Automatic annotation (TrEMBL):
Keywords: Methyltransferase, Transferase. GO terms for molecular function: methyltransferase activity. Pfam families: LCM (PF04072). Gene3D superfamilies: Vaccinia Virus protein VP39. It comes from Streptomyces mesophilus. This is Class I SAM-dependent methyltransferase.
Length: 281
């Protein structure tokens, strides 16, 4: 697929703060990783987005960090592979990306048949619509993911649905996470959801305003889940058939191995989000 941005006459200044501004941090790290000749993630569109935006990335978010950049690249690749695995079996499926910000997964995994629905807060949706290429199989729904009416926008759930929630659910309240899981389990039989979670100590620091990346204070996170707590997700709805860990792909060098196998080493378990797949009956 040709990876070209929507036409622009000038650089675009993003008017974001709070949780929406964090999409710039994930974009920055993904682009920093993609610029490397030995990158774990091929994402030229992320590089072009960073070059298009009028935002002091390095000044505000700090210089490229080898751990953060590779971790972000591996996390995105992990979600890409989950989508690709599902659509390999159901090529006409819908992919519903919740709160994906300026992720460019559609242009990395499109099989020529899937339908992509991006559910994003209005300010993020507006920026996504201005910057990213238009495509007839890619639609944007400008609303909060907690407004479950986005489920009505899925054109034909019988063809299969995979819902992704990358870097999102930790900013929601626990009851809201359960409601989203229950609604998906109820309305998307045969579908799956791929999500990531953060440990309690990280979410606690954010609520205390003590977690920063560069000059950006990470907004409060309210939901956390340790890897060994995954079975609790079954209680969200009787139609949740399976909950299992999704291992990050192999990385580059010693840092890559550390990120991939961190959950086997207690002291390193909090370096990256834990990725989980939930399958619905």
């Amino acid at each position: 697929m040709t990876e070209t941005l929507a036409p622009q006459t000038a650089r675009v200044r993003p008017a974001l703060d709070g949780v929406p501004e964090t999409l710039l941090w994930t974009l920055w790290n993904r682009a920093c990783e993609a610029r490397r000749p030995d990158a774990v993630l091929h994402d030229p569109l992320a590089i072009r987005l960073v070059d298009t935006l009028d935002y002091p990335f390095e000044e505000k978010l700090g210089p490229p960090h080898p751990l953060f950049a590779q971790t972000q690249g591996l996390r995105s690749l992990c979600f890409d592979r989950s989508v690709a695995n599902y659509t390999a079996r159901r090529p006409d499926a819908s992919v519903v990306a919740l709160g994906e910000g300026l992720e460019t997964s559609f242009w990395r995994v499109d099989n020529g048949r899937l339908n992509w629905l991006s559910v994003e807060l209005p300010e993020g949706a507006e920026l996504r619509g201005r910057l990213l290429p238009e495509h007839p199989r890619h639609r944007i729904v400008p609303k909060s993911v907690t407004d479950l009416s986005w489920l009505d926008a899925i054109e034909d759930p019988s063809r299969g649905v995979i819902v992704t929630a990358q870097g999102l659910l930790m900013y929601l309240k626990p009851a809201e996470v359960r409601e989203i899981l229950a609604a998906c389990a109820e309305r998307l039989p045969g579908g799956v959801m791929v999500l990531d979670s953060m440990p309690r100590w990280v979410t606690k620091l954010t609520r205390e305003g003590k977690l920063k990346v560069g000059k950006l204070t990470i907004p409060p996170m309210h939901w956390s889940m340790a890897p060994d707590e995954r079975p609790k997700l079954h209680s969200a709805h009787p139609s949740i058939a399976e909950v299992r860990a999704v291992q990050l792909p192999p990385g580059r060098g010693a840092l890559g191995k550390l990120v991939q196998h961190q959950y086997r080493i207690p002291v390193y378990r909090s370096f990256a989000p834990a990725v989980t797949l939930v399958r619905f009956k």
